[in-house]
């Protein structure tokens, strides 16, 4: 099953991975307990805060271990460890709330933690993105375990790693801080991790899990946390047995159990150093976001151009798929819905998404359909094949994030296989110089065989988009039977 990054729960999404920042729009009734396991593209079931005031000073939920807990003394030991970590960390944790300035109502929530005595707070960028992009509409506050509330200001953010640093304004006393685990002190496979945050806006909590290495094929490093994260815990710390921060909560898989993800602490430490002397961000920061996304798309382009595309065989056709280190591909064989037609499908996706406010960008997706219908005849096959090409949904209509796409169609012959190709580009409205690109291609060399390919790239510069399109088209090949 394909892996994809998440987007914040205040948006509907079809992703299998969900950012664990909780939606805080007012609802008529509290969400059902099982809502956090619902697909994120089902608005009626997505996790949400009830909109009612919450007593953050209430006792925390019972800490639980990841997986089945041992019986007897071992169970008591695990619980004691969780309680100890909780007591060590509780005064360093905060909830981050984004409020509409005019109505003073809650728009989104997440978690965070103090990292300096002068009140610097680490959280996720997707928790604080509204403060970065719409500061005229939103303001941020932090709430401590004891219910103390104060204003925050945004100092710096890292789109690529989904991190932000805030400062608590107006503090007179030194903030209690969590320290970072030294990078030289490497984590061991199976080492116990404790994740802290405010799940579903019902109170601060700790969950136990294990370190399972880094996520394979993640474009930026992510820690595979074998434990439970829930909406509202985004931006909270994950600590070791000594209470040192080793990662920042960010996401979980929706199609599995206790498959969660952390941002390695080293990236948070770097951002804290950059933020220490920074001025507060008080104007919409689209230029800074664009700069960071430009760096992201350049890294993405370089990796795809340097890593040789692999060939996937469909009869005599050879189509390009990414190197296994970049993307996982999934396929299906003959479709019984199409009698007389041998139809094979492949889908590939790179785990390269990044959060750009209230939407994701940076994804690269490839898909293929290979047709072989020797019994249909050339005319019937041509009609069916053309209809399949016409059914592809091209982004010709714009929205509030991007313009309508402009498309160019032509016949090309990059080598051994003549192709009909369409290239569409849609510009981002507020991220100048970035585009979404779609390349749709179909072979035109056989009367009852064909292959249809599609590549979608989000958040790409125009020149790099053309390089990727050319790289992609040149990799199609026909290998005649000996």
Radius of gyration: 25 Å
Helix content: 10-25%
Which second-level CATH architecture of the largest domain applies?
Answer: Beta Barrel
Query: How many structurally independent domains?
Result: 2
Determine the mean pLDDT: 84
The helix-and-strand class reads: alpha+beta
Tell me, briefly, the overall form.
elongated
Q: Using the coordinates above, name the CATH class of the largest domain.
A: Mainly Beta
Question: In percent terms, what proportion of residues is strand?
Answer: 25-35%
CATH topology of the largest domain: Thrombin, subunit H
In order across it, which strands form the biggest sheet? 17-18-21-25-24-23-22
Biggest pleated sheet: 7 strands, antiparallel
* Number of distinct helices: 6
Question: What is the assembly state of the chains in this entry?
Answer: single chain
Uncertain segments of ≥5 residues (pLDDT<50)? 1-14, 22-73
Task: Tally the beta strands.
Answer: 26
């Amino acid at each position: 099953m394909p892996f994809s990054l998440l987007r914040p729960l205040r948006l509907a999404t079809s992703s299998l991975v969900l950012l664990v920042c909780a939606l805080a729009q007012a609802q008529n009734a509290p969400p059902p307990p099982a809502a956090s396991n619902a697909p994120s593209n089902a608005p009626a079931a997505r996790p949400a805060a009830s909109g009612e005031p919450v007593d953050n000073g209430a006792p925390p939920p019972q800490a639980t271990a990841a997986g089945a807990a041992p019986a007897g003394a071992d169970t008591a030991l695990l619980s004691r460890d969780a309680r100890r970590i909780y007591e060590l960390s509780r005064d360093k944790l905060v909830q981050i709330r984004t409020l509409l300035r005019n109505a003073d109502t809650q728009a989104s929530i997440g978690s965070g933690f103090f990292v300096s005595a002068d009140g610097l707070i680490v959280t996720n960028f997707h928790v604080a993105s509204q403060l970065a992009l719409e500061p005229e509409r939103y303001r941020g506050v932090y709430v401590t375990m004891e219910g103390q509330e104060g204003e925050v200001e945004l100092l710096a953010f890292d789109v690529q790693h989904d991190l932000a640093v805030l400062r608590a304004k107006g503090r007179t006393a030194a903030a209690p801080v969590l320290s970072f685990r030294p990078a030289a002190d490497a984590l061991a496979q199976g080492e116990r991790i404790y994740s802290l945050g405010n799940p579903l806006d019902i109170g601060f909590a700790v969950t136990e899990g294990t370190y399972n290495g880094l996520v394979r094929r993640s474009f930026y490093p992510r820690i595979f946390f074998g434990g439970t994260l829930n909406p509202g815990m985004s931006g909270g710390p994950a600590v070791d047995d000594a209470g040192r921060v080793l990662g920042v909560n960010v996401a979980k898989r929706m199609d599995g159990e206790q498959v969660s993800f952390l941002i390695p602490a080293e990236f948070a430490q770097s951002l804290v150093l950059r933020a220490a002397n920074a001025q507060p961000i008080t104007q919409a920061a689209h230029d800074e976001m664009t700069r960071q996304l430009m760096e992201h798309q350049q890294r993405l382009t370089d990796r795809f151009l340097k890593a040789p595309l692999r060939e996937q065989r469909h009869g005599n056709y050879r189509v390009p798929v990414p190197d296994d280190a970049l993307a996982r591909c999934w396929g299906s064989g003959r479709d019984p819905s199409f009698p007389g037609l041998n139809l094979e499908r492949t889908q590939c996706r790179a785990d390269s998404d990044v959060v750009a406010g209230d939407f994701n960008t940076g994804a690269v997706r490839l898909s293929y359909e290979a047709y072989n219908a020797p019994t249909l005849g050339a005319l019937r096959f041509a009609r069916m094949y053309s209809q399949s090409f016409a059914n592809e949904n091209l982004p010709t209509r714009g929205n509030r994030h991007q313009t309508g796409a402009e498309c160019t169609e032509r016949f090309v012959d990059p080598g051994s296989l003549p192709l009909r190709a369409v290239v569409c580009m849609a510009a981002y409205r507020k991220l100048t110089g970035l585009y979404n690109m779609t390349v749709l291609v179909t072979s035109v060399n056989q009367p009852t065989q064909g292959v249809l390919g599609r590549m979608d790239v989000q958040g790409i510069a125009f020149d790099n988009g053309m390089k990727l399109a050319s790289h992609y088209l040149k990799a199609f090949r026909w290998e005649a039977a000996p």
